[in-house]
Amino acid sequence: MELYNSLAPWMPLLTPAENYRLEASIYRRLFLSHNPRTRTVLELGCGAGNNASHLKQRFTMTLTDRSPQMLRLSRSQNPECTHVQGDMRTLRLKQRFDAVFIHDAIAYMQTVDELKEALATAYVHCEPGGQVLIQPDYFTETFKAGTSHGGIDRDGRGMRYLMWVEEPQPDSHFYNTHFAFLLRHEDGSVTAEQETHTMGLFSEAQWLESLAAVGLTGEILQEPYADQGIPYLQLISARRPAP
Q1: What is the pTM of this model?
Q2: Which single residue of 36, 78, 128, 181 has CA 20 to 30 Å from 1?
Q3: Domain at 2-139+202-239, CATH from 3.50.30.10, 3.30.70.100, 3.40.50.150, 3.40.350.10
Q4: Rounded Cα gap, residues 75 and 53, in angstroms
């Protein structure tokens, strides 16, 4: 997907880090309400490191992503964090963390088996009694097709995007998100790019069953959000049982 490769340098104009301040404050509160002594956090699929740019003030962050271009962006704004390239389905570090965080990169798991692989990675890196916090884009029960748009100008460049979330086929475990980008370069020229991302779509029961299958106990949360037209964040808070 070129958005995370050749188009990665445009990511700060697509999703600026300042847009993540409110949701990061929710994640911080949930980490500390689970365990006030939470100190170390592993993020699987960190992208450009936008959530970490706010969470690092409170936690020692280790950030992972499969895209070297996205890790380069994250390093530029989070130089004090540890960065590791790796796929959340297969990554294995010789370390466990007080908490494991997975943001919307989990949406790229297209089958239940892939979902379980990512959750197993979270399990093996989580301390007993620790928390796994996940923010899926959708559950089957809450899915809504639609369009959105945005983008900003900064440092002589500009980006505008249209995102079209398409209705899935009946009984399908995935849906397509179509992106169209207009890119204004520093010389004033404008180019266009388009691509389609295929995302996994699972019911609340499938999420909870998949968590249980890898040894995690989870619950689904709705946290008040009230920003960008979104009334709440859908989250999963899971726990690795203590021995």
Answers
A1: 0.95
A2: 78
A3: 3.40.50.150
A4: 10
